[in-house]
Write a structure and sequence with these properties.
600 residues, alpha+beta, binds flavin-adenine dinucleotide
């Protein structure tokens, strides 16, 4: 099934009403002149058209056919080439790129919606331009002017693609132990050798060149993460005039056969003395790569919401059309042999859960995108500093919580279809398989949780939380007396107090118990995510209450219904996570290692 329609009204609501984006952008000289409300709406509607008409229809076949490999070459599924050309011709790859090098300089808040639409249409397809956008961002932030002039324009236009080459067979979460080597050459370049695995788009037939961003160690560099440098390794080396020259010695040895995203080529890449060029300074590669990884991490959250949105749209339609059983409160469709699935509380619970997580997630990713825009475009130093702290704090939450909830949503979408969700025809089982990877790559969700709790919270004794919690507190104080928001403000205040208390408990406990952080991290991230979504639902409710315009009344009313459901039926999960944290690490750590293996 490929009847995805971008949730335009919700996107416009978030930009124009919840975050008042035009007002924010008007304070930012670099974007103020680029966009107004009409331009934003026109971009969104073009994006909606492209993704619904040209990309979504390819998704089913991309799963059936998959990307294929033969003799070092990768062929992408039928139709990807044509759709990719349309994507490039529309300038979508340049949307938020640096205008000095051919980008359009648009804000992330807008770009994130186009990203979501593309992910909703096909994760396999979306990954190719997504990696290019991330690689361009890292180059734009850390490469020399000459390097930017050499690569960026063609990457923004989509003529060349980008990749991110980090993972090795023995070095995944722990990149410090990687062994790819980069040896300095007389001409100032480096010869890279080693094998990288799981490289998304490492080889493909969509672009004429591929610019690999590779992490490797220069002999003599410090051990661990501090000895990693970043290199640009083009598939085709460039002649002095910028035209494509000889083929570099980087080749694709094979592609993975995997659970989902089968149209995305996941490549084993062999570097055999491949010519590479150092980006920035030696041994700062991991820091530089974090620019790309942080971009991709928010992108993963958006990928999750994208897939879950498609799942919801199909499940809601199905639940209204499919008839099974009768309503507990009396027959609803007397002219039919049974009532629609939507009369059953459990089916409604599944759909409302999906919608509450999807819309809460979309609002949260827009909030994080707003902070990224402030960092990039504001000229107020204090605002930039606060936004930087928020981005650091919230990026692991966006990556992990949004993808965890997206996986739950897609599973629920499949369940709404019953047995028909398990068979291929309706596309639900593909969404479950495709979205699963979002919890794993770009740093597993377990690693994100450790980043949040260990690095962002405990390491500075909770200081990073101050800005975020102060903002939530200020919202609570401002709306405490607002009767229309009664159902939102008090539960938000209670959840905030609970999170503050459990944060203090962890900070104190981990002094004695060195396993406390590891034992609490995923529950802490989940509790943090629930609090964040409660805040998002409260700000959406505030903008939705008191509307009487007939034309849009349904939209605002639905927001309030779904928001109320989130607060009453989903936010209470926070208590389970807090109880689990309070139990400490004992029950996790006491069983001897030998007893984990039945054969002992
Ligand atoms: C389809 C696909 C596409 C990918 N694309 C790319 C790409 O484009 N570029 C790229 O470089 N990589 C890519 N990856 C690699 C991906 O980022 C890694 O697989 C991921 O980061 C996890 O590394 P790993 O597989 O080695 O697992 P491991 O690091 O071995 O982790 C195994 C388990 O142990 C846990 N764990 C590990 N260390 C710790 C710790 N210190 N504390 C607590 N728990 C821990 C993890 O959370 C996980 O649950 C891709 C992978 C896949 C499957």
């Amino acid at each position: 099934m490929s009847n995805y329609q971008a949730p335009m009204r919700d996107m416009q609501f978030l930009l124009h009403e919840v975050f008042n984006a035009e007002k924010l952008w008007s304070t930012m000289p670099a974007v103020a002149e680029l966009i107004d409300k009409d331009t934003v709406d026109a971009i969104l509607s073009e994006g909606a058209k492209l993704t619904a008409e040209a990309i979504a229809p390819l998704n089913r076949n991309s799963d059936e056919q998959g990307a294929t490999w033969a003799n070092g070459e990768v062929t992408t599924p039928d139709g990807f080439n044509k759709a990719y050309q349309l994507y490039c011709d529309g300038g979508w790859g340049a949307l938020s790129g640096d205008p000095e090098y051919g980008g359009m300089g648009m804000p992330k808040m807008l770009q994130s919606f186009v990203e979501e639409m593309t992910q909703s249409a096909s994760i396999s397809f979306a990954l190719y331009p997504m990696l290019t956008a991330g690689a361009s961002l890292a180059l734009s932030a850390h490469a020399s002017t000459e390097m930017k002039q050499t690569y960026l324009e063609n990457m923004y236009s989509g003529k060349w693609a980008g990749t991110m080459c980090l993972t090795e067979p023995h070095a995944g979460s722990d990149l410090g132990i990687m062994s790819a080597k980069a040896e300095a050459q007389d001409d100032g370049s480096f010869a890279l050798s080693g094998t990288k695995i799981f490289i998304t788009g490492g080889e493909q037939d969509l672009t004429e060149n591929i610019i690999h961003l590779v992490l490797a160690k220069i002999p003599g560099a410090p051990e661990g993460p501090r000895g990693i440098s970043m290199f640009v390794v083009p598939k085709f080396l460039l002649n002095d005039d910028g035209s494509l020259g000889v083929r570099n010695t980087v080749t694709c040895g094979s592609i993975e056969h995997k659970m989902g995203i089968k149209g995305s080529a996941t490549c084993v890449m062999n570097f055999d003395g491949a010519k590479g060029f150092l980006v920035g300074e030696e041994n700062k590669g991991l820091n530089y790569m974090f620019t790309m990884m942080n971009y991709e991490r928010l992108g993963m959250g958006i990928q999750g919401v994208g897939a879950a949105e498609t799942s919801y749209q199909q499940a809601a339609e199905y639940a209204i059309e499919r008839i099974q059983g009768r309503s507990a409160t009396g027959v609803k469709s007397a002219d039919k042999k049974a009532d629609s699935l939507i009369v059953h509380p459990d089916v409604r619970k599944m759909l409302l859960t999906m919608r509450a997580f999807n819309e809460g997630g979309r609002c949260f990713s827009t909030y994080v995108a707003k902070q990224l825009d402030i960092v990039k475009f504001s000229d107020n130093e204090n605002d930039i500093k606060q936004a930087e702290e928020l981005v650091a704090l919230l990026t692991p939450v966006a990556k992990a919580f949004m993808t965890d909830m997206a996986y739950e949503s897609c599973n629920l979408g499949q369940m709404v279809f019953g047995g028909h969700g398990y068979v291929r025809e309706w596309g639900q089982e593909q969404l479950v398989r495709d979205v699963r990877i979002a919890q794993i790559y770009e740093g597993t969700n377990g690693i994100q949780a450790l980043d949040l709790l260990g690095r962002k919270v405990v390491a500075n004794k909770g200081k990073f939380l101050d800005v975020y919690f102060a903002e939530i507190t200020s919202f609570i104080t401002q709306h405490n007396e607002n009767k229309a928001l009664n159902g939102f403000v008090q539960p938000l205040a209670t959840a905030l107090e609970k999170l503050k208390a459990i944060t203090e408990l962890i900070i104190a406990e981990q002094e004695q118990d060195k396993n406390m952080i590891g034992a609490s991290a995923t529950d802490y991230l989940a509790a943090f995510g629930l609090l964040s979504y409660a805040y998002m639902w409260a700000i959406m409710a505030e903008k939705s209450s008191g509307h009487s315009q007939q034309s849009d009344q349904d939209f605002y009313q639905a927001k309030l219904y779904v928001g109320e459901f989130f607060i009453e039926r989903l936010l209470p999960r926070i208590d389970g996570h807090i109880l689990a944290i309070e139990a400490g690490s004992k029950s996790l750590m006491t069983m001897p290692e030998s007893l984990f293996n039945y054969n002992h």
